[in-house]
Design a protein that fits this description.
By secondary structure, the protein is α/β, with parallel strands linked by helices. The chain has 10 helices and 13 strands. Strand 12 and strand 13 form a beta hairpin. The chain binds zinc ion. The site of zinc ion has 4 residues, from loops.
């Protein structure tokens, strides 16, 4: 949520474009599964099953979505959910914490916990019964789940000012939160597009083959690279036009993104080529 958008629009954002497909669970490595939500207003999840317990990344919008995720987990394992990682503070990524892992240790960046505590004071959000992090970090933290390693790190401001990425080195996979939306313009909160591109380059420097996006279908390395190229192309065009002295209106008119014509755009939620260009322009000029 951009603070500029305001809470009402953000709550509307949570209801965007309801999908009608079924949720799907795909094994993407040893012990590791991607849960692709059937509801575009509720985030995807990733879960790792160890010998004694389970780690889950993101839990969906609310208790209903959390229960759907838990049902999918229980079709594979009855082990306790020991850890939940929330990639950022947006409720569609953490609203199911209480249902998915009532006794789990919740992990997030410091910034995500702070923003979550602030959200919990809002009457519109209170009903979600959020469960903020028990354990926070600034740069990174490693969880050793039985035989597996889970590297959780903050790549700097990107979609928000406190996003976490969750890397599974043994499985060559990563949970991206909203730093990656497959074939879609992203919504941009109080992050930094310049650093977002650096963060994606950092991920692409890892031997990652599967990337679980915050929303929409599971991504390959080349899907992730294409999303990175979209942000980079757009960023470079906006920088060049701004350097020529163009206004924000002229920049929006003069950008060329025909190469990405298959990307989803959601004008209502400021997730379009134009709104992404405007966000970059404002980040450059403020
Ligand atoms: Zn988000």
């Amino acid at each position: 949520m951009a603070t500029r958008i305001g809470l009402a629009a953000f709550v509307a954002f949570l209801c965007w474009h309801p999908g009608f497909a079924q949720p799907s669970t795909t094994q993407i490595g040893k012990g590791l599964y991607a849960y692709i939500s059937d509801n575009d207003s509720s985030a995807n999840s990733t879960f790792l099953i160890g010998e004694r317990g389970i780690l889950v990344v993101d839990t969906g919008l609310n208790s209903r979505e959390g229960a759907k995720l838990l049902t999918a987990i229980r079709q594979i394992s009855q082990l306790p959910v020991e850890y939940i990682v929330n990639t950022h503070y947006h409720p569609d990524h953490q609203g199911g914490n209480n249902v998915v892992g009532p006794n789990a240790i919740v992990i997030s960046t410091d910034a995500t916990r702070e923003r979550t505590l602030a959200l919990m004071k809002d009457p519109d959000i209170k009903a979600l019964n959020l469960k903020p992090a028990d354990l926070t970090f600034h740069e990174g933290i490693t969880v050793h789940l039985d035989e597996y390693t889970v590297e959780i790190f903050f790549p700097g401001k990107a979609h928000t000012s406190g996003d976490a990425l969750v890397y599974f080195p043994e499985q060559k996979a990563i949970a991206m939160g909203d730093l990656f939306l497959n074939r879609s313009c992203p919504a941009m909160d109080d992050g930094s597009v310049e650093n977002w591109i650096h963060a994606l380059d950092q991920v692409l420097s890892l031997p990652v083959e599967k990337a679980v996006p915050g929303h929409f279908e599971l991504g390959t390395r080349s899907d992730l690279r294409r999303f990175r190229d979209y942000l980079n192309d757009l960023y470079k065009q906006v920088v060049a036009l701004e350097n020529k002295g163009e206004t924000i209106e002229q920049v929006v008119r003069d950008i060329h993104l025909e190469k990405y014509s298959d990307f989803r755009q959601y004008p209502k939620y400021e997730a379009t080529f134009s709104s992404n260009a405007s966000t970059i322009y404002r980040q450059l000029t403020h």
